[in-house]
């Protein structure tokens, strides 16, 4: 309840801090995103372990994706994924119309280019969770209009 | 119906674990980036400061507490309301100076180190929870109370408890004069 404020602030500070350090150092933007993503990966692995301790075995990939969209997302972001699409060949698109980590930013075009920085950690989180459930994946994110993201 | 309370508590726990795990990943990343412990500590403190100056707004909005009239009331507020609200633990407060501007918060359970067994040997002077010091310092500064916050004892370094020391920098007499 109050914890999400803490997590949101910590996440924002992390992004800001890492990029600030990069500016003063070598100035490579790509590495910051990788660092954020790998942090998310570690957290995702640990979190999914603790989360699925008592739940039943998953039947298939779609079941796992549904779990991520509903229970996992609810616990982490207090809401469910708004839309899940798939081509049944291994590609899934999760759409969140009011992504928690972006709602604090103004909903115009002004900060659109900075939005991906804030999604890197969450991509890692999903990738880590899936990897511990036995699925190798690549997770990318796209923001077309704040605060929705896919 | 009977499952509901259990589920909510579990979700609460997971939420907190998310924060703790994220913090752990952050410290691990900083240790990779910086070789010296002091740099990591400074970085954590700075981040904590950034969080604290914003967290105070959230805290005041949620708790609707009245203005504190003394340093000891402030310290009690931090321990009993703020810590309880955000970390779920209540440290005990003790005043450690005659002037009434130095306090210690003693935590016998620190949720941030739930998943940490011990500090690695080459990081002996790392203050793992330095973020907390920055948060308290930032929050106090936004309510116009300058303070120095440090760790006096740390369980990860072998002490019995974790103790955070808060030293308010302006003397109590000055404050009384201002009010008059």
Automatic annotation (TrEMBL), chain A:
Kindly give the InterPro entries that the UniProt entry links to this protein. Answer: NO_sig/Golgi_transp_ligand-bd, TRAPP_component, TRAPPC6/Trs33
**SUPFAM superfamilies in alphabetical order:** Ligand-binding domain in the NO signalling and Golgi transport
The record's Gene Ontology biological-process terms are: endoplasmic reticulum to Golgi vesicle-mediated transport; nervous system development
| Gene Ontology CC | cis-Golgi network; endoplasmic reticulum; trans-Golgi network; TRAPP complex
Task: Report any Pfam family annotated for this entry.
Answer: TRAPP
- Principal localization reads endoplasmic reticulum
Cell location: Endoplasmic reticulum; Golgi apparatus, cis-Golgi network
Where on the tree of life does the source sit, at the highest rank? Answer: Eukaryota
Q: Per UniProt, which keywords does this protein have?
A: Endoplasmic reticulum, Golgi apparatus, Neurogenesis
Annotated PANTHER family: TRAFFICKING PROTEIN PARTICLE COMPLEX SUBUNIT 6B
- Which purpose does this protein serve, as stated in its record? Component of a transport protein particle (TRAPP) complex that may function in specific stages of inter-organelle traffic. Specifically involved in the early development of neural circuitry, likely by controlling the frequency and amplitude of intracellular calcium transients implicated in the regulation of neuron differentiation and survival.
State the family it belongs to.
Answer: Belongs to the TRAPP small subunits family. BET3 subfamily.
Its name, as the record gives it, is Trafficking protein particle complex subunit 6B
Automatic annotation (TrEMBL), chain B:
Q: What GO biological process term is on the record, naming one?
A: Golgi vesicle transport
Is Zinc there in the keyword field? no
- Domain of life where this protein originates: Eukaryota
Its localization reads: Endoplasmic reticulum; Golgi apparatus, cis-Golgi network
Q: Which Pfam families match?
A: TRAPP
Major site of localization recorded for this protein: endoplasmic reticulum
- Listed PANTHER family: TRAFFICKING PROTEIN PARTICLE COMPLEX SUBUNIT 3
Its family?
Answer: Belongs to the TRAPP small subunits family. BET3 subfamily.
Physiological role = May play a role in vesicular transport from endoplasmic reticulum to Golgi.
Name used for this protein in its record: Trafficking protein particle complex subunit 3-like protein
Source organism per entry reads Ceyx cyanopectus (Indigo-banded kingfisher)
């Amino acid at each position: 309840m109050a914890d999400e404020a803490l997590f949101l602030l910590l996440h924002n500070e992390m992004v800001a801090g890492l990029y600030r350090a990069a500016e003063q150092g070598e100035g490579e933007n790509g590495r910051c995103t990788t660092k954020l993503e790998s942090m998310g990966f570690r957290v995702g692995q640990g979190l999914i372990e603790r989360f699925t301790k008592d739940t039943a075995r998953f039947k298939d990939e779609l079941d796992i994706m549904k779990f991520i969209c509903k229970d996992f997302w609810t616990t982490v972001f207090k809401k469910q994924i708004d839309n899940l699409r798939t081509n049944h060949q291994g590609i899934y698109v999760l759409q969140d119309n009011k992504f928690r980590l972006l709602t604090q930013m103004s909903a115009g075009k002004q900060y659109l280019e900075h939005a991906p920085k804030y999604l890197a950690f969450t991509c890692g989180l999903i990738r880590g969770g899936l990897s511990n459930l036995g699925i190798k994946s690549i997770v990318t994110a796209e923001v077309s209009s704040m605060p929705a993201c896919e | 119906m009977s499952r509901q309370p259990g589920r909510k508590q579990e979700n609460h726990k997971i939420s907190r674990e998310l924060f703790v795990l994220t913090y752990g990943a952050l410290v691990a990343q900083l240790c990779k980036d910086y070789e010296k412990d002091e740099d990591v500590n400074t970085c954590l403190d700075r981040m904590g400061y950034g969080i604290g100056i914003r967290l105070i707004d959230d805290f005041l909005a949620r708790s609707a507490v009245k203005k504190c009239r003394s340093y000891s009331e402030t310290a009690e507020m931090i321990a009993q309301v703020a810590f309880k609200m955000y970390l779920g633990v209540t440290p005990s407060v003790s005043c450690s100076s005659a002037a009434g501007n130095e306090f210690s918060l003693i935590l016998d359970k620190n949720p941030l180190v739930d998943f940490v067994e011990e500090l690695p040997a080459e990081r002996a002077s790392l203050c793992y929870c330095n973020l907390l010091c920055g948060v308290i310092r930032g929050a106090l500064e936004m309510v116009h109370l300058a303070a120095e916050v440090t760790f006096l004892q740390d369980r990860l370094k072998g002490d019995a408890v974790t103790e955070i020391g808060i030293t308010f920098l302006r003397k109590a007499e000055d404050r009384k004069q201002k009010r008059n």
